[in-house]
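pasting for ref
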Amino acid sequence: MSFLIKKIFFSGIFNGCMFLLLFIGIQNSINKSKVNFLINETIELPISFIVGSSFILGSILGSFNVFNMNNE
């Protein structure tokens, strides 16, 4: 199995588990807020969901970065 496929597989499994833990953890969250986009705003969401989902999205996007450390 190539390195890229292993990296994508591990990232998918890890972020999927983090997403499940996020849903379990926000069940009793009381503090809610709206996210303002350029055109519309979202419904009231728990702040922990907003922060957690942005962390998971950043982790997914960061796993696609390829850094070539060879100084040749």
